[in-house]
Amino acid sequence: MAKESGKENNLEETLKPFHRRASEAQDRLLRLEAALASKDAGNEGHMRTISELQSKLEDVNTQLVLERQKGEKLALENFKLQYRIVHLVRAIREADLKTAHDSEATSETISSLENLNLR
């Protein structure tokens, strides 16, 4: 029996470094799990922030598309109005020329009539 208790003592002494390393490994594992858990909590916050930012970006992109469409409509309306202005100005010039011509013709007619009366 003395041999057996000596072997058990010797076995325990031999296993002590293994138990110590196993214990240290468990401690490191616990610390890593705790660090990972805290990072996951931080990551959840980051993921929530990213999700909110993506949602805002989609809203802004939608608004941008609507504003571009508005701009295109306004540009088309502006083009149409410029077209109308060009034609209105042309019509006014033509009317002015016609009025000037008619005025000259009227002046000539009046002069002719005056000349007839004077004679």
TrEMBL record:
Keywords carried by this UniProt record: Coiled coil
Coiled-coil region(s): 43-70
Bias kind Polar residues: ranges: 106-119
Location of the region described as Disordered in the Swiss-Prot/TrEMBL record: 1-20, 98-119
Stated name of the protein: Uncharacterized protein
Species of origin: Cephalotus follicularis (Albany pitcher plant)
